[in-house]
Amino acid sequence: MNLANRITVARILLVPIIMFFLLIKVKFPHIRIEEFSITYNQIIAALIFIIAASTDSLDGYIARKRNLVTNLGKLLDPLADKLLVTAVLVSLVEMDKVDAWIVIVIISREWAVTGLRQIALLEGTVMAASKWGKAKTAAQITAIIALLINNFPFTFLHIPFDVIASWAAAIITVYSGIEYFVKNKHVIDFSEKTQ
């Protein structure tokens, strides 16, 4: 359990804490500025999410820089990312802040690509992250933060940035998933092999 893996585990442990602050049925005070309103628990959850999301690049950087790449890290890192994004998106559906279909599309893509990666590993192939995969992660994190903070500061400009960001995240997520399957179609062989 090296430093990089500890950071990854810390990211996983932050997931239930974020969900606690988002889904707890306690009346927290609101901050109100004109038509904008947000609860303190949402602010706390958003800050923890930002910290957790920022550790994604940090643990990978440390693992490569210090030559600490391990099989455990290869397993935990993508798992931690998916747990974080999935848990917060499902919580946002429960809070009625995002359409369920968007979350279903995003989660379905994540697990489909995970399955493809597993098949590739069994074939001895490592699927590298693509630029669209990285764009997908950035889009998802941006959308989640916008939803967590109730579209601040765009509410004052009457711009539904949180809705736009959610749609953009869904579109980029689907596109990046299609790209993974097209680029790695050789991994899945549907033809019947004859001896």
Automatic annotation (TrEMBL):
Chief localisation class: membrane
UniProt keyword annotation of Lipid biosynthesis present: yes
Domain of life: Bacteria
Pathway stated in the Swiss-Prot or TrEMBL entry: Lipid metabolism; Phospholipid metabolism; phosphatidylglycerol biosynthesis; phosphatidylglycerol from CDP-diacylglycerol: step 1/2
Keyword Cytoplasm: no
Compartments (UniProt record): Membrane
Reaction equations catalysed: a CDP-1,2-diacyl-sn-glycerol + sn-glycerol 3-phosphate = a 1,2-diacyl-sn-glycero-3-phospho-(1'-sn-glycero-3'-phosphate) + CMP + H(+)
UniProt GO MF annotations: CDP-diacylglycerol-glycerol-3-phosphate 3-phosphatidyltransferase activity
Membrane topology type: Multi-pass membrane protein
Catalytic class of the enzyme: transferase
NCBIfam families: pgsA
Function: This protein catalyzes the committed step to the synthesis of the acidic phospholipids.
PANTHER family per record: CDP-DIACYLGLYCEROL--GLYCEROL-3-PHOSPHATE 3-PHOSPHATIDYLTRANSFERASE 1, CHLOROPLASTIC, CDP-DIACYLGLYCEROL--GLYCEROL-3-PHOSPHATE 3-PHOSPHATIDYLTRANSFERASE-RELATED
UniProt family annotation: Belongs to the CDP-alcohol phosphatidyltransferase class-I family.
Protein name: CDP-diacylglycerol--glycerol-3-phosphate 3-phosphatidyltransferase
Organism: Paenibacillus planticolens
